[in-house]
Amino acid sequence: MVADEHNLPAPRFTLTRRATLKRGGLVLGLTVPAVSALLSSCSDSDGKSDPNAPAKGEKYGGTGVADRAVDAAKALGISGPLTLVAPSGNVGNFEPFYDEWASRTGIKMQSLELPIGQFTDKLFSSATAKTDAWDLIAIQPRLMGDLIGANAIAELTEYVDKHQPDIDDADHGFLPLQREYASRYEGKAYAIPVDGDNWIYAYRKDLLDDADNQAAFKSEYGYDLAPATTWAQYRDIAEFFTGDGVYGAADLVSSGWSFWFWELRYASRAKPQAYYFDDDMNPLVNTPEGIAALEDLINLKDFMPKDIPSWGYTESYAAMGKGEVVQETAWTSLAKYLNSDDSAVKDKWATAPMPGTEIDGEVVSRHIYAYGGSLVVWNYSKASEAAYLFAQWISSPEISGRMTAEAGFADPFRISDMGSEQLAEIYSADVMADYIRVAETSVPEIMIKGSNEYSNVLDENITRAFAGQISAAEAMANVESAWNDITSRLGRDEQKAAWQSLKSTYPQG
Amino acid sequence: MMTVDMRERRPEAQSRSGETAGGAARRQARERRRLSWLTSGPLIVVLLLLLVFPFVFNIWVSLTGWQINQGDWWKAPWIGLDNYQDALTDSRLWGSLLRTSLVTLVCVLVEGGIGLVLALCFAEKFRGRALLMGVTIVPMMILPVVNGFIFFMLFQSDGPVNDILRTDKAWLNDPWSALFVVALSDIYQWTPLMFLIMLAGYNAVPPNLRSAATVLGASRWQEFRYVVLPLMRPVIVIALIIRAIEAFKLFDPVFILTGGGPGTSTETISVYLYKVAFNDFRLGYAAALALVVLILLSIVGMRAVEQVEGRVKSQKEETVDE
Predict the structure, then answer these.
(1) How far is residue A396's CA from residue A350's CA, in Å, rounded to a whole number?
(2) Do B33 and B175 reside in the same domain of the chain?
(3) Contacts of A431 (CB under 8 A, 6+ apart)
(4) ipTM for the predicted complex
(5) Residues B118, B237 share a domain
(6) What's the Cα-to-Cα distance from A86 to each of A83, A112, A375, A388, rounded to whole Å?
(7) Same domain, yes or no, for B110 and B14?
(8) Based on the domain organization, do B37 and B160 belong to the same domain?
(9) A350 vs A371: CA distance, rounded Å
(10) Are B97 and B36 in a shared domain?
(11) Looking at residue A256, what is its pLDDT?
């Protein structure tokens, strides 16, 4: 039918810019309140949506850490909002708890998510500008020294003394790693830990237990196939399983990640500890131990996915989750991922103590504490005490277990969470059973001022050596020279003091 | 013949208020000057604040050892020309400069060449021209970060490019192939810009000159070679200069694709400066490096502009002579 425009009824709506704007405004005007009402009726401002949270008006009880934070925050009589800034992917650890905090204290929270690659630049440029745009920051603890140097974060000793977050409590305090490395700098309180980030060694139990594989492995390598106890065995297992789209390992060697994997190998190269510096801040990396640690990593080259030099942790987790990788060393959150519904190897993997190095007939095995996560209070915050109190509350024994179980990728960090059945289900019972031992044998990454610069130099030279541009020995010689320059520039005496303080926190024996 | 300067003899006309004509002119000139200061003054102040102050501040910072993690800039130690001395022997600086120059040269020439060919293809009207033109300029509108990510995905060892080529090459692990991917992503994104500039340049060539060449029996190639190309030359050179300046600042694709790695083998000057300033927090040294690069770029840029001006001038003179 051909429409005759003269016979058509007058259109009910005319499509003009004005009409569209008017109608849009009307629709928006009606929709926004309706949606808000719907959302507010669905959301639970009393924090009762979480069955693990006590009802509004009731105390958390327990250790009292959470209640002390709530009571003190209420007494401040402010409403916020406080801004928490975090690298992308990390805000998910905190946001699920904002409503509960707001309903109990009256202080609203909001997040600002920054791309992970631009996180440190933004922090430091804001420190230069002394902006008060945010109150709390979720940082890698290794940045603490640099942030303190830039006057960017506030010392928390006064608040810690006043509100008692029970950092060192033997029953419900923070794990040794978090206590020593992630909350203090040169003995002073600057941060509240909120992420465990112990490292684990995960392997495909089904493949290593397979009788055919065991027989073939023994005939090829002359010893039994079992979870690697040394880095040499780790390489052998990687070599054995590589082929047909399966890779023996997926340890990260890309820019921004590789230095942690070198540190992990270096940590087990000496007894009692393989330190980064001597007492005068002379680097100890251009040594047979440092070079061997790098060679351990380079020796895996043929047994890892081809794109590994450009991978981050999400790619390596996904590869193992898809069943393409036989073993990995990574953060504890790998266990969480491998047990998730996204994983194709949910019941096919297990963990074992970190491989190490045989020294004087004894295998020295070390885990490391790297990346991590702490909340620090921005030095230019206008509500620094309220910001601190939120950090105390969310890291309290009353919330910490829920935070690691229900939200994001944070790993357990309170001693009191070690017996949690819920966490044992999420991470696997053997991971949780071994958690304290791992925490007690873990050594820190370079957590002194200049950490970024020391790590960058290391990273650049590792990636160059892995790409075959320079030898392992050349790489370590470059690192030694550059580290000396950095130390001189930052002030050798100041760096010596910071290093001595960090060194004293290494586990003994 | 005797000439008389009438100005000497003419008595100054007096206004009703008794003011001479010269006095009025001087007063008007003063008022004009005052007006121009009033109108342009705020702009000059803003420009001083926005351009001159940061530039002077940058020079000052470059003479200090300021690191953000060492405290405030005004407390930074004065180290004179040490940063510049270090820059001279900084192999990463010169390596990244060389690499950036190479990528810039390749990208700009390829983009210019393809842009010119595309401009000639789109010079005449044909069916679907508008649609095709729209499609051609789409890459230019993609965010550079997104563009970098697209190429990151395309060139994974199990990505579509390797599927087509039936290989498992790890493109981003080898310095040369990684640089190739970086250059390719830049060419993909910025060829449309060159195309648009070239098309505008082509359209500015007077049609009667081309018609005259055709009437005189010139072939299409001769018409292009001897009429169109010489007249387009200033536009082409300006387009190349503008693009070269932009390409020299190449950052996003490198940052996304390789992060400057493996090692430092794909590091461009922008990526290196970024790392010095925001990964190592050495703002004093970064300021010195930025100034060194600025000086080098200015010299090259000014030489190029001089060349263009010289050519345009000689072209005009040739036209007048004819």
Answers:
(1) 30
(2) no
(3) A200, A332, A335, A351
(4) 0.77
(5) yes
(6) 10, 6, 9, 15
(7) no
(8) no
(9) 23
(10) no
(11) 86
Partner A contacted by B139 (CB < 8 A): no
Regarding whether B236 and B115 lie in a shared domain, the answer is yes
Task: State which residues form the domain around B42.
Answer: 2-52
Q: What is the pLDDT of residue A28?
A: 40
* Integer Cα distance of A467 and A294 in angstroms: 12
Nearest-Cα distance to chain B for A468, in Å, is 9
Tokens 């200049």 correspond to what residue?
A450
Number of domains in chain B: 2
CATH value at residue B273: 1.10.3720.10
Quote the minimal CA–CA distance from A255 to chain B in Å: 7
pLDDT, position B321 = 64
Task: Report chain A (509 residues): mean pLDDT per 10 consecutive residues.
Answer: 35 37 41 41 45 74 90 92 90 91 94 85 87 91 93 95 92 87 90 90 96 97 97 97 94 92 95 94 97 96 92 91 96 91 92 94 91 93 95 94 83 89 88 85 91 93 92 97 95 94 84
Full-model pTM: 0.81
Contact: A125, B278; criterion CB under 8 Å: yes
Supply the pLDDT for residue A131.
87
Cross-chain CB nearest to A307 (options B67, B157, B277): B157
Residues of B in contact with A467 (CB under 8 A): 173-175, 261-263, 265
Q: Are A431 and A367 contacting, i.e. CB atoms less than 8 angstroms apart?
A: no
Q: Is the CB of A450 less than 8 angstroms away from the CB of B69?
A: yes
CB-CB contact of A429 with B229 (8 Å): no
**Whole-number Å distance between alpha carbons of A352 and A399:** 29
What is the Rg, in whole angstroms, of the alpha carbon atoms belonging to chain B?
A: 28
Partners of residue B76 in chain A, C-beta under 8 Å: none
Contacts of A175 (CB under 8 A, 6+ apart): A196, A198, A412, A413, A414, A415, A435, A436, A439
Give the rounded percent of residues in chain B with a pLDDT score beyond 70: 92
Confirm whether B62 is domain-assigned. no
Contact check, Cβ <8 Å, A456/B255? no
Question: What confidence score (pLDDT) does residue B182 get?
Answer: 94
Report the pLDDT value the prediction gives residue B1, as an integer from 0 to 100. Answer: 45
Q: Which residues are CB-contacts of A226 (< 8 A; sequence separation ≥ 6)?
A: A208
pLDDT over 80 (residue B121): yes
pLDDT of residue A30: 41
Note whether A255 contacts B261, CB cutoff 8 Å.
Answer: yes
Name the residue facing B281 among A146, A309, A470 (closest C-beta): A146
Characterize the bridge pairing of strands A188-189 and A184-185. antiparallel
Nearest chain A alpha carbon to B70: A149
Q: How far is A492 from chain B (nearest CA, A)?
A: 13
Is the domain of B44 the same as that of B179?
no
CA distance A185 to chain B (A): 14
What are the residues whose beta carbons fall under 8 Å from the beta carbon of A420, sequence distance 6 or more? A401, A405, A412, A432
**A274/A263 Cα distance (integer angstroms):** 9
pLDDT at B71 over 90: no
The reported pLDDT for the residue numbered A144 is 93
A interface with B, Cβ–Cβ below 8 Å:
117, 120-121, 124-125, 127-128, 145-147, 149-151, 254-256, 305-307, 309-310, 449-450, 452-453, 456, 460-461, 463-467, 469-470, 489-490
Same domain for B104 and B18: no
